[in-house]
């Protein structure tokens, strides 16, 4: 999956807290930030629905 690169301006104390949380979860800080954003979007009902890929379609039901 392609990733969008984006320079993030954030309070250093916030990023430090994200880094500590990431360390606890054995993730990178970037991975943790993405997880936090994805979770917030899901809770708000704003997470985009992913398009089903060919591997998600049961055999025999291809379009």
Automatic annotation (TrEMBL):
GO terms for biological process: regulation of DNA-templated transcription. This is Arc family DNA binding domain-containing protein. InterPro entries: Arc_rbn_hlx_hlx, Ribbon_hlx_hlx. Gene3D superfamilies: Met repressor-like. Residues 42-63 are annotated as: Disordered.
